[in-house]
């Protein structure tokens, strides 16, 4: 048998242009408007919308068990175009349970904004587009916002022991949000709840 025949076919693939993961150990989740209570500024508008509307889906590849130290997870977040009032569709946003864990995001398709908020609630924004690369430092809340008219597809890699802390964001939100002002995405302050 020659050497080439002993090389195992890769069971895991990743679409470079569509971010679709194929193979084993894949986990799928989706968030509808019903699951995003108190995330958008205009809660009344959210409640008045079709609660089963999908805002985003995540497919993740977990090669090791959740919580494994020094392992890595991979994920693709797919945020649909849309708004709640003037606020663009976005992910819940989170800090990491192990707060010092960082993460990489990179833009694959569409256009959007990555909101990054430190522990003192200072929020900055980075433009997301195909090929954009974003380092999310530890102690930083992160949220993806779709400001375009098509799906915003973003890849991610993060430590398998990072975990997700949604509580702080659910209670206090981000200090800034992204709103459609006459067709232009604008970053604006949001007063603390
Ligand atoms: O958990 P959120 O804030 O809804 O973000 C969606 C996903 O984005 C990631 O940060 C990367 O896919 C996942 O960890 C997370 O589940
Ligand atoms: Fe994260």
From TrEMBL:
InterPro entries linked: G6P_isomerase_prok, RmlC-like_jellyroll, RmlC_Cupin_sf
Pfam families with a match to the protein in the record: GPI
Molecular function terms from GO: glucose-6-phosphate isomerase activity
EC number, as in UniProt: 5.3.1.9
GO biological process: gluconeogenesis; glycolytic process
GO cellular component, one term: cytoplasm
Reaction catalyzed: alpha-D-glucose 6-phosphate = beta-D-fructose 6-phosphate
Protein name: glucose-6-phosphate isomerase
